[in-house]
Amino acid sequence: MKKIQQTYEVFARQRRKDALRHIGNVTAPNADLAAAYARSIYNEEPWIEMRVVLREALIPAIELKGGAVA
């Protein structure tokens, strides 16, 4: 049986005073593997904190509808 792959958004910060910022995303069958993939893929910077969030868990505050506005 094939495991379902899900997309996780990756956020990180380099210094304690910095806000978490979006640095990319990973695809994985579960959160543990998503965290491992994120650490491996985005290891080019000296992060002090990194978080992965299931894309489906993000709650839109403002959502783009239709086409982009120029």
Description:
- The protein is an alpha+beta fold and 70 residues long.
- It has a single domain, classed as Ubiquitin-like (UB roll) (Roll), CATH 3.10.20.
- The chain is 16% helix and 31% strand.
- The protein is built from one helix and three strands; from the N terminus they run ββαβ.
- The protein has one helix at residues 31-41, and strands spanning 6-13, 21-28, 49-54.
- A three-stranded antiparallel beta sheet has the order 2-1-3, covered by helices on one side.
- Strand 1 (6-13) and strand 2 (21-28) form a beta hairpin.
- It is flat.
- The chain starts with 5 loop residues before the first strand and ends in a 16-residue tail after the last strand.
